[in-house]
Amino acid sequence: MPPLMVLVLLDIAVTWVITHKFDMTVWMLEDFFWLIVAGQVLLILLFAGVVVHGVRSGLRSVNHLAEQIRQRSIEDMQPMVVANLPSEIAPLVTHINDLLERLDSSLSAQRRFIGHAAHQLRTPLAGLKLESELMLARPLPDDVRTRAERIKVVSDRMIRLGQQLLVLARSNPDAQPRDNFVRLDLCEWVRASGAEWVPRALSAQVELNLIAPDAPVDIDGNPLLLDELLGNLIDNALRYGKKPGRITLTVGANPPSLTIEDDGPGVPPDERDRVFEAFYRSPSAAAGGSGLGLAIVREIANAHGAWCKLTSRPEYPGTRLAVVFPGPRKGTQLSRHERHA
């Protein structure tokens, strides 16, 4: 409105100057016509400039909001900023924020239910596993021993599934795992945590190697969640890699990263995004599993401000999965929007 008032006042001022400061006796009618045309053209140009500038200024905040929505992760339920938005758009954004809040509450309730259900299942499953182990420790008929071994295998799988569900609920960004972050050396942590998998790798005829720099590679992280991340990566490589075969863990320094490589059949290009979805298993997968391993890896990586990259055939003869960390003093400060940008 102020620019329009300025244009009106300018038009009145020009009219006053022409009618009071110029000698009209020597002017012809045609001169008056062209003077009026020139004044109106100038006024139209100024008016168009004011309108274009006003529209662009009003849409700048809308474009910024659209860019924020485009960059937002599907898991980010934080409310959008309503400040500096046009009054016509602000109510819409307010209602969208209300919808995001209700959706976030619903998803949080689902995660809590999964965590509580998995926790409640741990005790009876542990008892079932113990009973099957006690049965197998005694002389049994062959058919009974086969059933007892089957019960033990199923109970082990269910216990593993319950543990993965608990980790999946705990790695939820809303649970603020960054509150428990500590400074740790990525090389030393991978060396210590990976050593626990050496016996299982040897029993599966798989060679487990580590390539790491001599200098420390510091990151901020939650040790329990990171142990679960590495465990799922190694377990996944053991399940789908060759036997006998080789698994290589590589620690990078700049940026801090952890890469695991196996010599298995690889992941088809059309499934490289879907393997990170919870409970998804490839139709061509031969090994048993719950389909939660890589979903947990992605959730834990997101909670640490890290990102995952999977490479497979034909770029790499097998499967290579890299987890790139933001480094110390930054991972604990990243917002959910910055982590997915």
Helix/strand structural class: alpha+beta
Side-by-side strand order of the widest sheet:
2-4-5-7-6
Q: Rg, please? A: 33 Å
- The whole-number mean of residue pLDDT values reads 78
H/E series: HHHHEHHEEHEEHEEH
Distance between the termini: 38 Å
In percent, how much strand structure appears in the residues? 5-15%
* Net shape: elongated
What kind of sheet is the major sheet?
5 strands, mixed
Query: Which blocks of ≥5 consecutive residues have pLDDT under 50?
Result: 330-341
Total beta strands: 7
Q: What's the helix count? A: 9
**Helical amount among residues, as a percent range?**
55-70%
Features:
single chain; 341 residues; alpha+beta; 5-stranded mixed β-sheet; 7 strands
Structural account:
The chain is an alpha+beta fold and 341 residues long. It contains nine helices and seven strands, in the order ααααβααββαββαββα. It has helices at residues 2-21, 29-71, 90-136, 142-170, 186-195, 198-203, 223-240, 293-303, 336-340, and strands spanning 182-185, 206-211, 218-221, 245-253, 256-262, 307-312, 319-324. The strands form two sheets. A five-stranded mixed sheet has the order 2-4-5-7-6. It has a two-stranded antiparallel sheet with strand order 1-3. Strand 4 and strand 5 form a beta hairpin. The longest helix has 47 residues, at 90-136. The radius of gyration is 33 Å and the shape is elongated. Mean pLDDT is 78; it is low at 330-341.
